[in-house]
Amino acid sequence: MARFSQERLTKLIRGIGVRQIRLACGLVLFAYLVSHFLNHALGNISMDALADGVYYHTVLWQFLPVAITFYTAALLHAGLGIWALYQRRQFRWRAIEPLQLVLGLSIPALIIAHIAGVRLGQTLFGHEKFYPQVLYAQWVAWPYRILQMYAVLLIAWIHGCIGLYFWLRMRNFYQRAAPFLLAAAVLIPTLAMLGIYQGGRSVIADSESAEWRAENLGPQQVGTAAEQKVLDSIVDDFLIGYLGLLGLVLAARGVRAIAERRGGMINLSYGNGRTVRVPRGLSVLEASLRHNVPHASVCGGRARCSTCRIRVIGDCSTLPKPSPREAFVLDRVGASDPSIRLACQLRPEADLSFFQLFMPHAMSANAHASHPHRIGQERYLVSMFVDMRGSTKLAEKQLPFDTVFIVNRFLGAVSQAVIECGGQPNQFVGDGQLALFGLTASPQVACRQALRAAAMISVNVDELNQFLSHDLREPLRFGIGIHGGEVIIGDIGYRDHMVFTALGDAVNVAARLQDMTKSIGCEAIASEEVRITAGLADDALPQQEVTIRGRSEPMIVHVIGDAKTLSALVNDVQIAASAVAV
Asked: Are 322 and 181 part of one and the same domain?
């Protein structure tokens, strides 16, 4: 157990890179942003509500461990944003990515005046600026600042939402959660800006009172002219330094580009006759984008997927070693071959020949398909293989067109049961079929759906035998294998001949179990994994230990002589689950 935990920890650490640190810091900052926006929204109620909200907001974010985490995240995120400006060699991914970078880099310049007026004023001079003082400055003293504040709110919020989109879009739940996330993304900043507007109106009305101004605009709250001059000087110095830093980064990019060209050019050959010439230092994916060569990349070059994988042709010993992040991704997809690399991470120093493992037209780096799950997504699915017995003998005794008719009727009976139970007919191979369950359901539901489908297949085939009784010398028989586990789903094939399917050990095991029904003489075999996940009792089905071809260890399976009995078992489990829920 200790060794297993250590291995998992090692893999986790290997998977941490600059992007993961940037994401973690961004989540901390976005949490602060949500808290601050909700505080602003209280202005729609009253100034007292704003005061109460800022008290709890301050208690949370000035709590020492939280404050250290927040300021560390802010400095790291800003620094990594500047590093991204330098590091990124190619900006033709999509318009949204450079937009996110520009928005993020503009935030420090726009927010520094607010930080200096509130946080530095309190730290250096003990100012007690809260909503009345800030809103007075924005709405009365310097009205243009409210436009700047609204701009900061929108820019920071859009920047954060783009980051969340890039993070969540490949998650299984994203399509279901997207409408709710969109509602929150629109409502929260809208309520926040309305709250600031209502608070500003209240302050404008209150500021007409000399007593209110004496109470809220004294030196203890807003400071003296000399103190304000010091704060303005800090703001000016920061802006000069920050803009100068950005200018240095852009100059460094230009120097690097010149140095790369002087350092020599290399040839990248795509294995299809296409060769491009690029400077050393570019990643293979960046080279593809620079020369408009279609290259699959779901995550946009973030090393969060493996769809940009390439197989290097020739000697791999001279290639740069994979970074910890690249090694983590390759290990995750089981790519132990040293010739397989991530195009977004490999920066060759010499001529390179390779070919892409995923079809470029399926998902290019600059065109996101409408079905992101079509390429290389790992999912828990339940695979069901169904095969008609005796089709060879049937073909010997029937006319060819009659045989096709009977096989189609059999596959129709199977497909009807699969669809009615929530599955998806996937592949038809001769007189057999692969069906998948769990594309839109949880593993527990998927296992129950597959078992119920097996029962319904048995019923449908019995009805088909009665219908074809005058045409068949022997009733149609079948075998079913059911197993669940992690698989890779995606489009497999070539050009116009792509099919959506699942690949992985779980699919292979289901096929082996279907073959095993012939020797055992039963209608269906389900794995122990399916029984446990479906919630069936230990003694619900007879079990035995079998050896699966292609696997080193035996596995426990459950033999079902009559598949129709599965329907009652699944119904009992669902009734029990409903009773517990109630």
From this structure: no
Residue from 291, 270, 263, 478 nearest 387 by CA? 478
Same domain, 448 and 396: yes
* Number of neighbouring beta carbons within 10 Å of residue 3: 7
In-domain check, residue 371: no
Among 413, 432, 429, 410, residue whose Cα is nearest residue 421? 413
Highest mean pLDDT among 132-136, 388-392, 404-408, 499-503: 132-136
* Number of domains forming the structure of the chain: 3
Most confident listed range (25-29, 253-257, 364-368): 25-29
CATH code, 340: 3.10.20.30
Question: DSSP alpha helices (H): ranges in 139-224?
Answer: 144-168, 174-206, 210-216, 219-222
Of 221, 256, 291, which residue sits at a domain end?
A: 256
Check residue 138 and report its DSSP letter. I
Kind plus residue range of the DSSP H or E element containing 470: none
Would you call 94 exposed, middle or buried from its count of C-beta atoms within 10 A (0-12, 13-18, 19+)? middle
Q: Is the domain of 110 the same as that of 30?
A: yes
pLDDT at 365: 38
What is the span of the domain harbouring residue 433?
376-581
Identify whether residues 215 and 289 lie together within a single domain: no
Taking the model in full, what pTM does it have? 0.58
Q: Among 563, 559, 475, 476, which Cα is nearest to 519's?
A: 559
Do 87 and 152 have their domain in common?
Answer: yes
The last residue of one of the domains, among 332, 362, 392, is 362
Q: Which amino acid is present at 344? A: C
CB of 84 closer than 8 Å to CB of 66? no
* Any domain includes 367: no
d(CA 484, CA 535) in angstroms, rounded, equals 13
Is there a contact between 80 and 18 (Cβ–Cβ < 8 Å)? yes
Pull the structure tokens for residue 61. 């974010």
Residue 330 to residues 208, 321, 341, 485: CA-CA distances in angstroms? 67, 13, 7, 20
Residue 370 lies in a domain: no
Tell me the pLDDT tens digit for each residue of 60-70. Answer: 999 999 999 99
Q: What is the pLDDT of residues 281-323, one digit of tens each?
A: 888 988 888 888 888 776 767 777 777 888 888 888 889 888 8
Contacts of residues 398-404 at CB distance under 8 Å and 24 or more positions apart, as own/partner, are 398/471, 402/471
Same domain? For 341 and 475 the reply is no
* Residue 537 to residue 358: CA distance in whole angstroms: 43
Model confidence over 437-457: pLDDT tens digits?
998 888 999 999 999 999 999
Shared-domain flag, residues 388 and 497? yes
- 226 and 280 in a single domain? The answer is no
Closest by alpha carbon to 381, among 330, 429, 450?
Answer: 450
261 in any annotated domain:
no
Give pLDDT tens digits for 331-358: 776 667 788 899 988 999 889 998 887 6
Q: Is 486 helix (H, G, I), strand (E, B) or coil?
A: strand
pLDDT of residue 301: 72
Per the CB < 8 A criterion, the answer to whether 357 and 337 are in contact is: no
Contact present, 478 and 455 (Cβ < 8 Å): no
